[in-house]
Amino acid sequence: MHLSQDIKPISYLKSKTADVINNVNENQRSVIITQNGEAKAVIQDIKSYENMQNSLNLLKLIVQSENDIENNRIICQEDMFNNLEKKLFG
Questions:
Q1: Quick check: 5 pLDDT over 90?
Q2: How far apart are CA 23 and CA 68, in angstroms?
Q3: CA 88, CA 75: separation in Å to the nearest integer?
Q4: Is 31 exposed, middle or buried (0-12, 13-18, 19+ CB in 10 A)?
């Protein structure tokens, strides 16, 4: 993160909105918007946002899987595929 480039006051965003959005999309670097000297918002390009959301969803699945293993809520692979075939193909 380059603080001089990545942190901007809300007044800068108000006057140069198009420039900020173009830079975020071109550089794929988030910009932190401050108000009264405090960080209040983050502007991020859509592709980076989607990648972050996908990563978070995968991490949630890993945590759920680890919890299932810890609580012995598991079945063998063969049984899982047999159950899946029954549900899909009757």
A1: no
A2: 43
A3: 18
A4: buried
Mean pLDDT of 17-39: 96
Task: Classify 87 as helix, strand or coil.
Answer: helix
What pTM does this model have?
0.72
Handedness of CA 12, 18, 19, 21 (dihedral sign): positive
In 3D space, the residue among 44, 48, 49, 46 whose CA is nearest the CA of residue 20 turns out to be 44
* C-alpha separations of 1 from 46, 50, 61, 77 in Å: 18, 20, 29, 44
Is residue 10 a contact partner of residue 42, using CB atoms and an 8 Å limit? no
Least confident of 4-8, 16-20, 27-31: 4-8
